[in-house]
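Query structure, 312 tokens:
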């Protein structure tokens, strides 16, 4: 009998986010793309919207704009957004909901704060990233909306690690969303468990830490985005916190996340991974295709309303 041991991936780099304004002036934190780091194949962008406390009547959104050649994934952590597109889809996204939009051959959509939320104000916190389905760039646009209650969740034996499985599998739970290319999108929470924080023989066990061990196939590119808190990552236990992106080397089959022993608060991270496409990426604003000529075509198609318009 042989036992196979998986190797823990090391950290290849830690990237800081830049702050930028999107749409009508929504404040986002963005680890990529930026001038020094354009994409992380097959991922094109990660934006963290807020968290920001919006005053009544002051919420900003992204009115009608086109996309072609990729998918957008919106995961709302707090607040409410409203979506409309030229395919006739309309939806309201609440806290914990996921929207998976395949722009494919082209779609015009709007992403705005939901009206009542905008009037009352409140906290808005959400994420969006885009990926690039291989030869599916010109497929028919598709729209999937998954309410929070349908997102699979799991936790470890003592509750110190819990996960929301948006895509892929973790801790025995599988996602309901089916993706074109293999993608992993996991939202982990690590905190000292009630059990490990208890005292043993009258002595508090201070060294207790939460540890998440997630299998990630070697051929996947994998990164973590830290939403809140501070953690230790990879074989070398590198430290990263709030708003930082941790890039893993493709040198193992396991990603390890730890909440540090001195952590005062829980650690919230997204683990995102996918098989690289190794194809040329040409972007121009909202279009991401493989050649310059296809960009020219996309602009022409949009100007001539071949991507449709929102008229409801
Ligand atoms: Co958009």
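Result returned for the query:
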């Amino acid at each position: 009998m042989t036992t196979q041991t998986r190797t823990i991936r090391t950290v290849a780099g830690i990237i800081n986010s830049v702050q930028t304004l999107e749409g009508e002036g929504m404040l986002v934190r963005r680890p990529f793309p930026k001038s020094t780091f354009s994409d992380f194949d097959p991922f094109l962008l990660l934006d963290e919207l807020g968290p920001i406390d919006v005053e009544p009547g002051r919420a900003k959104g992204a009115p009608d704009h086109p996309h072609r050649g990729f998918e957008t994934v919106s995961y709302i952590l707090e607040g409410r957004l409203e979506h409309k597109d030229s395919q006739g889809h309309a939806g309201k996204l609440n806290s914990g909901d996921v929207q998976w939009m395949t722009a494919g051959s082209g779609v015009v959509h709007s992403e705005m704060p939901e009206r009542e939320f905008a009037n009352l104000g409140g906290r808005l916190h959400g994420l969006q990233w885009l990926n690039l389905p291989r030869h599916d760039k010109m497929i028919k646009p598709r729209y999937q909306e998954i309410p929070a209650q349908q997102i699979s969740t799991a936790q470890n034996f003592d509750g110190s690690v819990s996960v929301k499985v948006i895509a892929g599998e973790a801790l025995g739970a599988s996602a309901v969303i089916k993706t074109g290319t293999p993608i992993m999108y996991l939202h982990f929470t690590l905190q000292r468990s009630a059990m490990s924080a208890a005292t043993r023989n009258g002595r508090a066990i201070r060294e207790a830490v939460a540890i998440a061990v997630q299998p990630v196939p070697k051929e996947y590119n994998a990164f973590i985005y830290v939403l809140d808190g501070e953690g230790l990552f990879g074989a070398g236990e590198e430290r990263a916190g709030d708003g930082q992106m941790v890039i893993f080397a493709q040198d193992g089959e396991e990603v390890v996340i730890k909440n540090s022993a001195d952590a005062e608060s829980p650690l919230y991270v997204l683990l995102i991974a996918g098989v690289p496409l190794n194809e040329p990426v040409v972007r121009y604003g909202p279009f991401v295709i493989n050649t310059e000529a296809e960009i020219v075509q996309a602009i022409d198609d949009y100007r001539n309303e071949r991507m449709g318009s929102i008229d409801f």
